[in-house]
Design brief:
With 499 residues, the protein is mainly beta. The protein has five helices and 33 strands. It has a four-stranded antiparallel beta sheet, with no helix packed on it. A four-stranded antiparallel beta sheet has the order 2-3-4-5, with no helix packed on it. A four-stranded antiparallel beta sheet has the order 6-7-8-9, with no helix packed on it.
């Protein structure tokens, strides 16, 4: 037998010992234990709309439009003691800043023009010294910006909203910026689907702006990008649809109309009155909901892309087009609604806001169907086919009501109003975080099996949470998973961590 010296095996024992020590230092987290651990107030209405985090500098960058357009920079090295250390002034670049994202030490900001119908800008800054890297023209009213997971692309959803009298209605577009090609940009519109308008509308797509111009009517809102950075999905909120973007070929590949939710089903009970002096969820309402998603995220798994959407809902309100009316202010078809006189009272359907652009099926001036804004839920969609795989029904409203956080004054509109989403993995558990704008809260769901989400808990947050940001354990300054929630009505940024 060959002899092995004692000295020769010492390095082996040292190596094994180090590996064991490293394993011991990994923090085990309880995903149910998220609790507030820090906060900061950076302004009033318009502050703290969207946040993004740079792990290289341990800085949080936050939209602040409360007084002037700027980006506040927060020292995030100790998330329980947040301090603003700098502000990036954005007046030289145009109007309000709408969205932020960070990759590899570069901060990307989406900034609308002073005249919102003009082309917006994406401005790139270094995160270490805030110096300008590049200014890139994009479409009108860039509302969301995101880097692709591989960092090679920046995408913006450009809403292209009209002016008040609809005399200037720019195209809704998606901009694809190639980072490695000196930030070259391609702006995509939806005009190639104009010939499919009738078919798409039959499936639930809405085209209803003045002039009935298909490409101008579509308004991109939020973006999710596949883990391989090849495909993006964009919500078309007002239009009740999701578009698929092929990033490699820089083309719009598909548009999925999302259809409608039937509130007459038992599992979709909702509270429709803000004047009945009670929070009461019932299913006697012959009303449909338009999903109209705002936030969208993609489940970080392999196989079929699963899209999670926050079905907030939105109505167009311009001097030339105001689509919302209360049911008590419209005429109901007597055959479809034989108890119309009772339904139109404030305690029943009278206060509910519906669109006047849809529902008069025979054109006789009364409404045969009723369509309200949003679906008061989050949904899961097959990213390949557009098929719905899951809907949370009325659970968001029910859960926040159980916590005493449901705002009955919003029952006539969109309930708890889900808006922003984030997904994060804590240990072996994948968690969905859903911001609820009118409940001033977040709902947490275990989506480890994404086809069967399980409600976990509700967290109280600031007034009107807009930005929901998950920071994973390996990028966190504390070694624990963090959740950052920024709220646009009170300018408060809150941080939550696991125990």
């Amino acid at each position: 037998m060959k002899k092995i010296s004692f000295l020769a095996i010492i390095p082996v024992f040292i190596f094994v010992s180090c590996k064991k020590e490293a394993a011991v230092n990994i923090i085990k987290e309880d995903p149910y234990s998220f609790a507030e651990s820090g906060s900061i107030d950076i302004g009033d209405v318009g502050a703290a709309e969207i946040s993004t985090y740079d792990p290289q500098t341990k800085r949080l960058f936050v939209v602040n439009n409360s007084t002037v357009s700027k980006i506040d920079v927060i020292d995030f090295s100790n998330p329980s003691n947040l301090v603003v250390i700098y502000s990036i002034a954005l007046a030289p670049y145009g109007g309000l800043v709408n969205s932020l994202d960070v990759n590899d030490g570069k901060l990307a900001a989406a900034i609308e023009a002073i005249n919102k119908q003009d082309a917006g800008k994406v401005v790139i800054f270094k995160t270490n010294d805030y110096s300008e890297v590049k200014v890139i023209p994009v479409g009108s009213l860039p509302d969301m910006i995101t880097y692709s997971p591989d960092g090679k692309y920046i995408l913006t959803a450009n809403e292209g909203e009209p002016n008040a009298d609809y005399s200037n209605d720019p195209l809704g577009t998606v901009s694809i910026i190639s980072v490695g090609d000196n930030y070259a940009v391609v702006n995509l519109d939806f005009s190639s689907f104009t010939s499919s308008q009738a078919t798409l509308q039959a499936g639930g797509l809405r085209v209803f702006g003045i002039g009935n111009n298909f490409a101008k009517d579509l308004e991109p809102e939020s973006i999710a990008i596949s883990p391989d950075s090849k495909t993006a999905w964009v919500t078309l909120q007002e239009n009740n649809a999701i578009a698929t973007i092929n990033i490699e070929t820089k083309t719009v590949a598909k548009i999925f109309p999302l259809g409608f939710k039937n509130y007459n089903l038992d599992t979709y009970k909702m509270d429709v009155s803000d004047r009945d002096n009670i929070i009461s969820f019932n299913n006697k309402w012959n009303v449909k909901g338009m999903f109209q998603p705002d936030g969208i995220v993609i489940y970080p798994g392999d196989g079929v892309p699963l899209l999670f959407t926050a079905n907030e809902g939105d109505a167009r309100e311009y001097s030339a087009l105001t689509e919302a009316k209360r049911i008590k202010d419209i005429t109901l078809d007597p055959f479809m609604f034989p108890t119309a006189a009772v339904l139109r009272t404030d305690a029943q359907l009278g206060r509910l806001n519906i669109t006047t652009t849809k529902g008069d099926n025979d054109g006789d001036g009364d409404f045969d169907e009723l369509f309200s804004f949003g679906a008061r839920s989050f949904s899961i969609w097959n990213g390949n086919t557009g098929r719905m795989e899951y809907d949370s029904k009325n659970e968001l409203d029910v859960k926040v009501a159980a916590e005493g956080l449901y705002d009955d004054g919003r029952s006539d509109d969109k309930g708890a109003e889900p808006e922003g989403l984030a997904i994060g993995k804590i240990g072996n558990t994948t968690v969905l975080f859903a911001g609820l704008e009118r409940a001033d809260a977040l709902a947490l769901y275990d989506i480890t099996n994404p086809y069967y989400p399980i409600f976990m808990k509700v967290l109280k947050c600031g007034d009107a949470p807009e930005g929901v940001l998950f920071i994973p354990q390996d990028k966190s300054p504390t070694g624990r998973s963090l959740l950052v929630v920024s709220s646009e009505n009170d300018g408060v940024v809150k941080v939550y961590t696991t125990k």
